[in-house]
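Chapter summary example.
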Amino acid sequence: LSSCNERDRATILRAVRQYGGGILEFAAEVLQDDREVVLAAVRQNGWALAYAAEKLQRDREIVFEAVRQHGEALRYAAEELRKDREVVIEALRQNGDALRHAAEELRRDREVVLEAVRQNGEALFYAAEELQSDPELQPSIVFSNAIAGRGAHARVFTIRELSQAEDSHHQNRQLVLSALGLGSGRIVYMPRDATLGDLACTLVDRHEDSNLVFMVMPGDLIPGPLDAPKPLAEFFL
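The structure predicted for these 237 residues follows.
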C-alpha cells in the first residue's frame, strides 16, 4: 500500500471500531480487499461480508467470523464454504433461516437441519423436501431435545450406571446412574424404558444454567441429538 492508502487503512479501521462493520460498503476497493480491514468489519457486522472482495468471501476464517456474528451472511460466502458443514452449522446456530443459503447436500443432512430448526422452527421450510416430514425434525420435537450437537457450547456429564433398583411400586426396575459434571456428581434415577432424550431433559431440569447437555456414555460414546429416541438401557447392557 502507498502511504496514502496506509492512512486510509488506519482511518477505515478506526471507523469500523466506532461505527461498525457496515462502513466497509463505503471503503475503497483496495480496502475491501484488505484482509485485516475485512476481518475487523465482519466481526462487528457479519453483513459486511457482502462488500468484501471475492477472494475474501472464500477465506474460511473471515466467513466463519461473519456467520458467527450474523448467520444470514452465509449468502455472501463462496460456494465451497456454503458446503462446509462446520461453517454452515455455525451460521445456523446464529440464525436458522441461513439454511436457505446452505448447499443442497447440507439441506438434506438431518443433523444440519436439526440445528437450523433448533434455532428457528420455521427454518424447516428450507430443508430438503424429504426431511420436512421427518418426525424427529418437527419443531415441537426439536425444541424438547436437550442433547447438544457437535461443537455446541453445553455442559458435559459423564454417565455411569451404579445399580438397578425396584421403583416405589415394585413393578418396574430403575436405572440408578451417576452424572458427573464440572466436578460435581449427582445420582439420577431413570425408568428402565427411558430414552437418551429423557435423561438429557432430566439433567437440564436439574441444572438450569444450561438448556443443552453432552453426555459421555460408557465406552466414551457421545450421542448426538438425533440419538434422543434411543433406549437408555441399551448403553448399560
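To summarize the output: The first strand starts at residue 155 and ends at 166.
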